Amino acid sequence: MTHVAPAVAPHTAERVHSASAHAESAVLALPGLDPVPTSVHLLRQCGDIVIAVPGDSTAAGLVVGCGATGSPAVIELTDHAPLPLREPVRALVWLRGWVHAVPANSQRALATAVAEDHPHPALLDVGHTAILLRLVVDSAVVADTSGADSVSREQLRAARPDPFCALEGAWLQHLEADHADVIDRLARLLPPDLRRGALIHPLAIDRYGVTLRVEGVDADHDIRLPFLSPADDIESLSRAVHTLAGTH
User: Fold this and answer.
1) pLDDT in tens, 125-177
2) Which residue segment(s) compose the domain that 38 sits in?
3) Residue 26's closest CA among 43, 13, 10?
4) Phi/psi zone of residue 77: left (φ > 0), alpha (ψ -120 to 50 degrees), beta?
5) How many CB atoms lie within 10 A of CB 43?
6) Hey, CA dihedral for 40, 43, 45, 48, is it positive or negative?
7) DSSP letter string over 151-206?
8) Is residue 87 part of a domain?
9) Which residues pair with 132 in a beta bridge?
10) Are 190 and 223 in contact (CB under 8 A)?
11) Do 70 and 132 share a domain, yes or no?
């Protein structure tokens, strides 16, 4: 009988979904044009990403002018840590595909649908100063300090964000502000040469483990500490963290 080792980190498609959900900023890049910042973005389960851009932008005019054929495009999303770190960027995501204009008579309906999953005040600008576009994703790349990995459209459609994605920011802030003892115990799991003279912060947490940011004298290092087994709910996640830290 073949034994499969348990996963110790989210797979690439899940990382793309989680980083896209965390990202507060994104830009749309079209051939021959300067990148255009988006005010709203939502990577959907169907394999596309809906974005809002200024209605009077050159990019919006070009996409509308392309009609049903659309235009090749890339959307770059930046995932920033929810803590004030020396280098705040945790990950970058590039979504490549074809961007299409959303018909004028469907703009408000799509904005309403996006708001159900991602309420955002900038959606109120749709139909006035902003326009919704839809990029059908062909492939995605996510990059962080561990390297860069790519996934296909089919892999993205089969994946979900980490189940604790929406709560992660608040948890990391709480851990940093109120549980220095837990961070200190987790830091003892790091190689001694990394700990020497370094500031150590919680960088990420998901169902598989905790990642620490080590701000060393000369460089930063992101070190992942996997749980013994994946967490299924908030109670098991808390238990996994305390077990890893040796406080249970």
Assistant:
1) 999 999 999 999 999 999 987 789 999 999 999 999 999 999 999 999 999 99
2) 12-157
3) 43
4) beta
5) 29
6) positive
7) EEHHHHHT----TTGGGHHHHHHHHHHH-HHHHHHHHTTS-HHHHTT-EEEEEEEE
8) yes
9) 52
10) yes
11) yes
